Amino acid sequence: MTLRQVLDVLWQRAWIIVLVTVIAVVSAGAYLAVRDVTYETTGTVRLNPVVTEASLSGEIGGVAIDLDPETITAPVILDKATELLNEPRGSLSDQIDVELDETSRTGRLFITGTGPSPESARDRTDAVIEAYRTYVDEQMVAAEATLRERHAAAVQQAAALQEEVRRNPANAIATTNLATALGQMSTLQAQLDAMATSGPATTVLDDAPLGTATVPDPALVIALALLSGLIVGIGAALIRDQFDNRLRGADEIEEISGATSLGELRWDPAVKKMNPPLPVAGSHRTDLSEGLRSVRSTLQVLLPPRNAVIVVTSVEPGDGKSFVTANLALAWARAGKQVILVGGDLRRPDLARYYGEAADGEGVSELLARHADGKHITEEAIESLLNFTGYRRLRLLPSGAEPPDPADLLAGEGYPVLVEKLRALADIVIIDSPPAMGLADASLLAAHTDGAVIMASVRRTDRVLLADTVSGLRANGVEVLGVVGNRGRKKLPKTYSAYYMRPTDTRPATPRLTPQSLPIDTEVDDFEIDAGEAADRPPLSRRRPNGAVPVTSSSRGGPNPDPERELETDTE
Question: Residue 225: which residues within 8 A CB-CB, separation 6 or more?
Fold first, then answer.
C-alpha cells in the first residue's frame, strides 16, 4: 500500500482509532483512580573500617558480633523503629530495603524506606537508621567489653608465666606459653586501639529527604495511554482493512471482476429528502446528479445511437439499481432521446417511488401472459400500456401484476418479441431488473438486450459476490457493459465544485404543464415541462381512454421531429 492509500484507510476507519484510544485513556484513568500511591526515600550511613570489616567477617578480634546489613530488615531493628514512630509492631515489614556498598574502605549502607506519604517515607527511613545506629553502638560496646576482659586475662596470664620463667629459666613450656600470652595480649591491645581511633561506628552521610512517588506521574500515564491507543488503533484499522473484503471504490472494479468500471456515484444524503428522488430532474447540480450524467455519457459510447436496450441490475438488494435506472432514463430523456423505462422487476417493483401512478397498472407480465395464450405482442398493444411520466420524451411500461413464476414467464417466447417491439418505439429502452445473485430474472432479461449494467455499493458489496455476479451473467451469454459503484465517499476537488456546481437556482420556475391541463386539440410540441419544477411534484400518469387515437409520427404525416411522448386525443 502507498502512503496515500494508508492515509485513506486510516481516515475511513478513524472510528476504530478513536475507539481504541478512548478505551486506552479511560482504562488509564481507571487505573489512576484505584492505584495505591506509595513514596520512598533513601538515607546513607557510613560505617567505620572496624564496623565494615566486622559486618563482613562477623567478628572483632575473635569476638562474634552480628553486624550483617540484613539485620536492618530483621525484627530486632524494625521493632525499635516502630516504637520510635509509634506505629503498630510489624508495620514496617517489607517497607525497608538495604544495600551495602563494598567498593570503598569504609562501607556505606543505603537504607530505603517506603510509606503512604512523602513524610511517612522519610520518617520511617530516619527511624530505621536511628535504630540501626543504636544497635551497632550496643554491639560495639559489648564487643569492646569482651575484648578488655580478654586483654586483662591475657595480662594476668603473661605476668604469671613471666614469674614462673624467672624462677626457672630452663622451663621451655613456660617460656612458650609466655610468648603466646604476650602475642595474644598484643593482638587484643591492637584491636582495642583500632576501635578507639576509628571514630564513630556509624555516621549519617545523607539524611533521608521527603519521599518520591514509586508509581508513574499521572500525566505520563495518560500520555502513554494516548500514544499506545493511537498505535494500537492504527494497527487495528490497517489489519481490519486487510481482512475487509468489501468493495472499496470504483478504481478496483476492473481488477476484481474483469468488467469495465462505468464510474462511481457519490453518496448524497439530500436524496432522502427529495420527493420523488430524481436528482437529475432539477437544475440544482450536485456531485450525484453530475455522476449520473457521466454514467449516461459513458453508456452512450458503448451503445448504438438508436434502438438500444439495456438492463440495470445489481449484486444484492439495496445497491440502488432502481434509483439509477429511474435517473438514467430521465437523464437520457433530457438529453433529447426518446426513452422507454420498463419495470422488469416482476417480483418487487420499485419504480412507483420515482414516477408514482405511472408505474402502476398493466404492463410486462400481462403482455407476456397474453403472448403465452396466443395473443401476439404488437406495437399497438405496447403503446396502449405505456404511461406518461410527466417528463418530456420519457414513457414507462409498468411491471404489471406479479406472476406465479416470473422466471418461467421471462423464459418464454414472448419476451424476445417484447424487446424487439420496444426497440422500434424508442431511442433507448432501460429495463429495471431484480438483483442478479440467486435469481435467474436478470440473466433472462439481459439475454436479448445490448448489455447489462451492474450496480455495486462501495463499502458494502462483497468482492467475491461482485466477481461471481459478473461471471454468472457472462456465463449465460449476457454482455456486461460495466459496473457502477454506488454510495461512494470520494469528494470532488473544491475547484471543481466551485466551477460546476451551483448551490441554488436563481432562475424563476415556470408553471408545470401536463397533457391533462391542455386543450384537447393541443399538440405535445406546443408545451415544455420545466424539469426543476417536475422534481418537486409527483409524476403524472395518463392511460388512453377507449377509442383514443395516439398522436404518432404517422398521424402527423411524417417523422416526429420532437420525440415527445405521444399523447391521446379523444376522437369524439
Answer: 24, 25, 27, 28
pLDDT average, residue stretch 287-310 = 93
Q: Where are the alpha helices (DSSP H) in 198-320?
A: 218-242, 253-257, 287-302
Full 3-state SS string of 413-429:
CHHHHHHHHHHHHCCEE
Coil, helix or strand for 128? helix
For residue 371, the one-letter residue type is H
Residue with cell 524506606: 113
Report the C-alpha gap between 201 and 286 in whole angstroms.
92
Instruction: Output the CA torsion sign for 366, 367, 368, 372.
Output: positive
**Is pLDDT above 70 for 395?**
yes
- Residue-wise pLDDT tens digits, 52-69: 888 888 888 888 888 888
pLDDT in tens, 303-336: 998 899 999 999 999 999 999 999 999 999 999 9
Q: What is the CA radius of gyration of the chain?
A: 51
Nearest to 513 by CA among 524, 527, 523, 526: 527
Q: 195: Cβ–Cβ under 8 A, 6 or more apart, which residues?
A: 50, 60, 140, 143, 144, 147
What letter represents residue 537's amino acid? R
Average pLDDT value over all residues in the chain? 83
Is residue 546 pLDDT above 90, yes or no?
Answer: no
Q: Which of 88, 70, 69 is nearest to 79 (CA)?
A: 88
Lowest mean pLDDT: which of 5-9, 202-206, 473-477?
A: 5-9
Query: What is the rounded CA–CA span in Å between residue 48 and residue 53?
Result: 9
Of residues 310, 328, 308, the one with CA closest to residue 320: 328
Cell numbers for 377, please give them.
405482442
The per-type count for the chain, helices as H runs and strands as E runs, is 19, 17
CB within 8 Å of 387: residues ≥ 6 apart: 355, 357, 358, 359, 361, 395, 396, 397, 398, 541, 542, 543
Query: DSSP secondary structure string, 211-232?
Result: -EESS--HHHHHHHHHHHHHHH
For residue 160, give Cα distances in angstroms to 174, 182, 189, 530: 10, 11, 19, 143
Burial classification of residue 559, based on how many CB atoms lie within 10 Å of its CB (0-12 exposed, 13-18 middle, 19 or more buried) = exposed
Residues 6+ apart with CB under 8 A from 467: 256, 257, 258
Task: Provide the pLDDT for residue 500.
Answer: 57
